[in-house]
TrEMBL record:
This is Class II aldolase/adducin family protein. GO terms for biological process: pentose catabolic process. GO terms for cellular component: cytosol. SUPFAM superfamilies: AraD/HMP-PK domain-like. It comes from the Bacteria. The keyword GTP-binding does not apply. GO terms for molecular function: aldehyde-lyase activity; metal ion binding. Pfam families: Aldolase_II (PF00596). Residues 13-189, 233-406 form the Class II aldolase/adducin N-terminal domain. Keywords: Lyase, Metal-binding.
């Protein structure tokens, strides 16, 4: 995963940027959580104590010098001692994030660790998760029990009745781990509301991770005419919008748009989705890829969808919180919640894990005008459409429907519109 290029950013600017993302994503409160970076001099830059996370500025960040002295306008976070303890225990860790994201707090108060084998990249990104027994916040004892877990090799730790703490080789790495871990926990909770989550074996995850894409040959020359550049802008806008709305996370999500004939543009792997740049997007022309770039590992699937479905001009493959509840449980999502849902989606079948691998035909044989989207078990949702904005709208409608169904399941028996009402919709809107 290519992280945000922070090489030229001062630690205080990095911290301000990431705490803002965490706060605006609803993963911490005004007063909760803290972030730090240790620099090459051994100085630790850390968020201040009792300062509004929603308005934090670079000048608010505090520096705890390697000799223990403190520089800054504020006091450092009361929990900075455990950050120091982690850095002493693990010199390879250069950034630490601690917060109280709701789903992970849920696991901490039932004293469980989320099983990341529920989706492939969760285990890959988070790694094994440690567990730190409860100690008084801000105490040396808390620093000791947390550092002990990191000393065992864990980069992610559940803090009993408290929250979570993660470390990374830089702040972008730590943030991706933090975000993915919370997403995994939320997926398990949502899935448990409607059914029973199914887990992948280590062998299945290894198969996913070791997939060697059918790498297309490179073109000799590449051109970027104005219509091609316009598509790049569309893709970038939609990816960023999906991230802002919680429909895509840093570590997963692919968007492609047909260009001319069966040529198309597609997002790359190994780029934090919220930091995607126009130049990152890969052109696929005449079965060849843009020189020097690697397209998404799902490029083969996108290519075949365009070849076999002339009506499809855009594809989004992503993980959104409530649709993933149906993905990890394999439960059938009944889109007959409200008329709009059925008109937009009609039916969303579940496809087995692995059906999105190169060379597989199941998804290709299922997608059609009347079946524009599929849920891939333990992996993602794939949505197709004409214009990219319309495809994104379809994703939103599907996610809203899944959210309504998941929330409704806690209230009582779900009662969708009936067959007669569906037939009336078919005649009025789809004839």
């Amino acid at each position: 995963m290519r992280k945000l290029n922070t090489r030229w950013m001062h630690p205080r600017d990095q911290i301000t940027m990431i705490i803002d993302k965490i706060y605006r994503s609803g993963l911490t409160t005004t007063s909760g959580g803290n972030i730090s970076i240790i620099d090459e001099n051994g100085d630790v830059w850390v968020t201040p104590s009792a300062i509004d996370k929603g308005t934090l500025r670079p000048t608010d960040i505090v520096c705890v010098k390697s000799d223990g002295s403190i520089e800054g306008r504020h006091k450092p976070s009361s929990e900075y001692p455990f950050h120091i303890a982690i850095y002493k225990s693990r010199p390879d860790i250069k950034a630490v994030i601690h917060a109280h994201p709701p789903a992970l707090v849920s696991f901490s108060i039932v004293r469980e660790i989320p099983n990341t084998n529920v989706i492939p990249q969760a285990k890959h990104v988070c790694g094994p998760i440690g567990y730190a027994p409860y100690e008084l916040p801000g105490s040396e004892e808390l620093g000791t029990v947390i550092a002990r877990e990191f000393d065992k090799g864990f980069n992610s730790v559940i803090m009993e009745n408290h929250g979570t703490v993660v470390g990374g080789r830089d702040l972008s790495d730590a943030y991706q781990r933090f975000e993915t871990m919370e997403f995994c926990a939320r997926t398990l909770i949502n899935g448990s509301t409607i059914g029973t989550p199914n887990y992948l074996t280590d062998e299945q995850i290894n198969e996913f991770e070791s997939q060697i894409p059918r790498l297309l040959p490179e073109m000799d020359e590449v051109e970027h005419p104005s219509d091609e550049r316009a598509i790049r802008e569309q893709i970038q806008r939609i990816v960023l919008r999906a991230c802002d709305q919680g429909l895509m996370i840093s570590s997963y999500g692919t968007v492609s748009v047909r260009w001319r004939g069966n040529d198309f543009l597609i997002t790359p792997p190994n780029v934090a989705r919220w930091d995607i740049q126009l130049k990152d997007i890969v052109q696929i022309k005449d079965g060849k890829r843009e020189p020097g770039k690697i397209p998404s590992r799902s490029t083969w699937l996108h290519q075949e969808i365009y070849k076999r479905n002339p009506h499809v001009n855009s594809i989004i493959l992503t993980q959104s919180p409530y649709l993933m509840a149906y993905s990890v449980t394999g439960e059938k999502m009944d889109v007959r919640t409200i008329p709009e849902s059925w008109i937009f989606l009609q039916d969303i079948p579940n496809m087995p894990f692995g059906s999105h691998f190169a060379g597989q035909e199941a998804i290709l044989n299922t997608l059609s005008v009347n079946t524009p989207a599929v849920i891939i078990n333990n992996d993602s949702v794939l949505v197709t459409g004409d214009k990219l904005l319309g495809t994104f709208d379809r994703l939103e409608v599907a996610e809203f429907s899944a959210k309504s169904l998941t929330m409704g399941a806690s209230l009582g028996k779900l009662v969708p519109i009936n067959d007669q009402q569906v037939e009336a919709l078919r005649k009025k809107f789809l004839s």
